Recover the amino acids of this structure.
């Protein structure tokens, strides 16, 4: 009693199991960006992919050599060797070693029904495969986490066999036994009971839990496993994953830490969880989750006079945890008063020391609210916000040039020929007008090239800068091609990276705005030196 | 032992608490339609609204007189009388009686902190208000379900007082005591313990449970309450509700019935739950939930060769319940990891009876793999796949027209003026070439209008069709505006909805492909009749 419980290990599999979700697609480059953010959040393990099953995941591990993670260890995932091969000549195990990660997750079958029906081998042969695969990786110097697939179904069907599978992995040198509810259908009581049984039986090893959400119980099942003795918690950001998804770390970590008193992350890191959740979805071009526990945009929104006056008197009357603890914000849906504190904070960072009553602040807030209603999203485009603030509050010069107009023509002459895009632009720099043109691969690229061509004459350092990412989102779902679009551009110059935004009913005009801001921000930062 | 447990009462509050969700709006007419479907599903109670707080809900109850429900009873919701009034002259209670429903839900405060901070009255006065309000409704011949707001927070803060609140309601004639986790932050153990305490203390009354999902635990909390003795289960379809939503009946009912052996609905009614969930969202103009447990469109979807061949051998290997039990369907996703089995299955659905060794199959698989590498994503664009398959395997005609070429011009004349977009297209239908032009809001819209204009002359039924959604995704993150883009288009004609895809380095050409397929699919389906 009174002792502080040990910190739980958080193991994220967004980049591997998460990408099995329908419509959740990340490139190798996206995965690197996500890995950096998960590391910043303070997670302990990041499962990067299955190199033996996907060339994209091999590419990711090759690129991951340049990731220097501060808190997290990268894990490569793979399966036990093929029944017809030996560990030494199994391609999947070879790919696992080649990935270079010091920690490997190895999945093997723990349900007799699967061994018989799917592998078509004897139960004893399956144990041999598990022993051989674990021992092979351990002998190669890898730390092995053994994922016992369908463990809880296996335990219910043939208890002795499910435990024998774990014993085989343990005996061959596994460092952790991860109990998987692969079909996602177990109930919390079952999970708790099964986990305590394993924790008691294998006291020297870390017991992990890996749940799926087919019964809508993945969060509860994970908490139940921790109550039963699990010390490693697996899941994905936002619960992405195949079918109904994996256990959702954005609900589980706050639940463990704020409600069960089981520390996972330092409090200042926990406060990054909402923005991390949104960042991950943004990489896959998905809008933020509205109704997600803790991190959703509606999670702390209040409607109706009684709720709002109640929260003003005493937030605990209508909030189960303080939104700041998870980096989320209270929102009032009727009269939105949120944002002021956040904006003052940002202004301070940028060197503007404004008073809370300053009329300039109210004016700026009004303009931002208006622009956010139009679809500008400054969370992912802080460079555009910083430029706007400098213009409005009379900070350093932030304009540099005016974009006067463009004409873009895109011509596909015949069914089998590629379209040709040409853009002409007019820009003005210090009173001089420049009118030029460029071809491109598609209309957006032509526009981008023409703008740079026009401006590089005046600002040669723009040659250092490149576009890192370009995203388009159609706003307000149901009006088809007439809807408003938001373009987010990410740029870099080898030192910094920054995001800018444009919104219009016209995808080219939205791109024009975002590209203009991205170049302005480069000039703005360089001029500070 | 061996006795069949009594059927649980299912109480739906989609039409009242559910409509507190951001973005979930139902008219009085929509509510009538939803009520009919919930009745057909076999639910026992339908809470129709709060007549004392909303004129729309008064209108609903006035119209509801014409509803003839077969299994469900309609419930009107209201709160205890205002501290400054008496039951006889309280407008809220009067509206509750005027609504005409025989069963009324009456909410009162069960957490001392709320009584003091928000009502600003003594704890004893609150008990008087509860007694007076319940007795008033009971004397008017109403059956009263007492909703104990914040019951679990109240129980934790002042156990005796929370129980005294229930005793006051019971003594005044309440037929049910509904325990509410209003802030949604309780854990399953707490809920189970609190519920068993109440069930033991008030053996003659029905104990109900009403959870919110702020901790991601509403489903687990509701199941825990039933294990603790609750007999009435409250929730909403799809978990709609304020903040993170209410308990989701579409996950809870199958969980209770299929996993805990607690009957809620006759099995043939349970099989209507998936279509009912989709119907409710459709009324609010929301797309079906993808990842929802049991009823989501992805809930029984399988990716990957091993999963698919496993399910073909023995569905229980990868499915926690049979999809038919909840009226859902198994789906095989055509994806880069999938193989032959998924494609053969799809081909079968489309009437192509191919052998696994057929060289046409290998050829088609090769082409699909190639196209998926280029970025075509058929998961969300099955209509494009069906058209392709029909072309390749010589099924029904699926071409209808050829898109020959386009020219799109987008001109922004000055800084403050909106851009003007114009598209010209050339199409060929049965040997005739049509060359026409259209203006649009942005270049994609102009292209869409021009294509339709050219084709509607030949196919007047295209006027029935509309674009429902348009999505752009830039593939392979790191090449900026030069990257390849994928356009997904969703279209509908009032009867069906379908998705199509286009991929190009040029966003307009990708749109051109996806728009062309979306029109072809409409003609293809119509020609089947």
């Amino acid at each position: 009693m009174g002792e502080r419980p040990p910190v739980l290990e958080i193991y994220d599999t967004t980049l591997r199991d998460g990408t099995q979700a329908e419509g959740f697609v990340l490139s190798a480059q996206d995965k690197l960006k996500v890995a950096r953010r998960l590391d910043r959040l303070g997670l302990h393990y990041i499962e990067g992919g299955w190199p033996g099953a996907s060339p994209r995941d091999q590419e990711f591990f090759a690129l991951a050599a340049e990731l220097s993670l501060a808190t997290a260890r990268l894990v490569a995932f793979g399966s036990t060797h093929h029944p017809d091969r030996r560990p030494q000549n199994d391609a999947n195990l070879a790919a696992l070693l080649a990935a270079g990660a010091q920690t490997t997750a190895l999945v093997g079958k723990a349900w007799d029904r699967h061994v018989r029906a799917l592998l078509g081998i004897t139960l004893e042969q399956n144990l041999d495969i598990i022993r051989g695969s674990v021992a092979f990786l351990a002998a190669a110097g890898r730390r092995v986490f053994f994922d016992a697939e369908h463990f809880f179904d296996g335990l219910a069907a043939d208890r002795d066999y499910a435990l024998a599978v774990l014993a085989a992995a343990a005996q061959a040198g596994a460092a952790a036994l991860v109990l998987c509810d692969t079909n996602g259908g177990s109930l919390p009581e079952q999970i708790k009971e099964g986990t305590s049984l394993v924790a008691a039986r294998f006291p020297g090893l870390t017991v992990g839990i890996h749940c799926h959400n087919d019964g809508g119980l993945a969060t509860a099942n994970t908490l139940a496993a921790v109550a039963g003795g699990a010390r490693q918690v697996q899941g994905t950001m936002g619960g992405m994953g195949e079918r109904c998804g994996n256990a959702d770390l954005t609900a589980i970590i706050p639940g463990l830490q704020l409600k069960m008193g089981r520390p996972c992350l330092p409090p200042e890191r926990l406060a990054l969880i909402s923005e991390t959740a949104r960042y991950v979805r943004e990489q896959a071009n998905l809008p933020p989750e509205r109704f997600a526990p803790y991190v959703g945009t509606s999670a702390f929104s209040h409607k109706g006079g009684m709720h709002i006056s109640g929260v003003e008197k005493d937030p605990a009357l209508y909030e189960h945890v303080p939104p700041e603890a998870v980096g989320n914000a209270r929102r009032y849906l009727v009269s939105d008063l949120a944002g002021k504190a956040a904006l003052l904070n940002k202004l301070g960072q940028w060197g503007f020391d404004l008073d809370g009553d300053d009329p300039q602040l109210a004016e700026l807030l009004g303009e931002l609210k208006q622009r956010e209603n139009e679809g500008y999203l400054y969370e992912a485009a802080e460079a555009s916000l910083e430029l706007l603030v400098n213009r409005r509050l009379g900070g350093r010069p932030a304009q540099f040039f005016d974009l006067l107009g463009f004409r873009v023509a895109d011509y596909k002459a015949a069914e089998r020929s590629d379209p040709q895009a040409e853009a002409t632009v007019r820009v003005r720099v210090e009173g001089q007008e420049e009118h030029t043109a460029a071809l491109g691969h598609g209309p957006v690229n032509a526009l981008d090239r023409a703008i740079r061509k026009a401006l590089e004459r005046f600002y040669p350092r723009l040659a250092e800068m490149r576009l890192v990412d370009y995203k388009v989102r159609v706003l307000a779902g149901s009006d088809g091609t007439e809807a408003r679009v938001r373009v987010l551009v990410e740029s870099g110059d080898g030192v910094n990276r920054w995001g800018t935004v444009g919104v219009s009913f016209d995808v080219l005009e939205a791109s024009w705005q975002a590209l203009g801001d991205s170049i302005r921000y480069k000039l703005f930062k360089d001029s500070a030196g």
In short: DSSP finds 18 helices and 16 strands in chain B. Chain B has a mean pLDDT of 92. The longest strand of chain B covers residues 402-412.
